[in-house]
């Protein structure tokens, strides 16, 4: 599970509702997609992210079997990302609460995280296994707060409906 984009700019304790909008406005991927590039795919976000034509989120209150199926498929796809993050934290335990904490200035911690991401991908390509017999990483993921409607919501909702019909 190769990492393709790492945005390490806010502390892990920052609340999701703050980081969701920050990630979208400060990441290259979010900016490219907002500008209309990358029309061949979508990003997946939890319910704390705003629905956009390029960012698909789950239905908050699914009303049909199709919407429930969409949410199931969406959740399964999101677990792949969570698993990749978990493997990344297993390889670099200092990035996980179970392995201690990085006691450096936040700017330096961001550089360490990005360097670990590069080294993680190098290790994957070289076939270097994860350390054996480690407990799973501790993952704190509070329930996201639903995003509010915004410009682009209607277009995102139409795309969500189109994807749902294909499932």
TrEMBL record:
This is DDE Tnp4 domain-containing protein. Its main location: nucleus. InterPro entries: HARBI1-like, HARBI1_dom. It holds the Pfam family DDE_Tnp_4. Keywords: Hydrolase, Metal-binding, Nuclease, Nucleus. It is found in: Nucleus. Its cofactor is a divalent metal cation. Residues 4-121 form the DDE Tnp4 domain. PANTHER family: NUCLEASE HARBI1-RELATED (PTHR22930:SF267), PTHR22930. Signal peptide: none annotated. Belongs to the HARBI1 family.
